[in-house]
């Protein structure tokens, strides 16, 4: 559920992302897509937020 523009169901610490709430560690999107860059993901390092967009 969104509160003040942030989605309290999606915590995130990636402040370099366009969709980060900045003041607090939440995402502002309604939903995100989590994916992988591996053929056979076995560790959390294998997972990616596919909704990430660089803030630059
Ligand atoms: S899109 Fe992904 S990386 Fe960006 S703020 Fe949301 S959860 Fe974090």
Structure description:
- With 56 residues, the chain is mainly β.
- It has one domain (2-49).
- Helix content is 0%, strand content 29%.
- It has no helices and 5 strands.
- It has strands at residues 2-3, 6-11, 26-27, 34-36, 47-49.
- The strands form 2 sheets. Strands 1-2-3 form a 3-stranded antiparallel sheet, with no helix packed on it. It has a two-stranded antiparallel sheet with strand order 4-5.
- A hairpin with a 2-residue loop joins strand 1 (2-3) and strand 2 (6-11).
- The chain is elongated.
- The model has no long low-confidence stretch (mean pLDDT 96).
- The structure holds iron/sulfur cluster (SF4).
- The site of iron/sulfur cluster has 12 residues, from loops.
- Residues 10, 12, 14, 17, 19-20, 27, 29, 32, 49, 51-52 line the site of iron/sulfur cluster.
From the spread of the alpha carbons, the general shape counts as elongated
Strand content: 25-35%
Q: Name the bound molecules.
A: iron/sulfur cluster
Strand order of the biggest β-sheet: 1-2-3
Q: What's the order of the H and E elements? A: EEEEE
Radius of gyration: 12 Å
- Structural class call reads mainly beta
Mean pLDDT: 96
Range of helix content = under 10%
Would you report the number of β strands?
5
Number of helices: 0
Q: Could you list the spans in which at least 5 consecutive residues all have pLDDT below 50?
A: none
Main sheet specs: 3 strands, antiparallel
Spatial separation of the terminal alpha carbons: 27 Å
Query: What's the domain count?
Result: 1
InterPro entries: DUF1540
Protein name: DUF1540 domain-containing protein
Domain DUF1540: 10-52
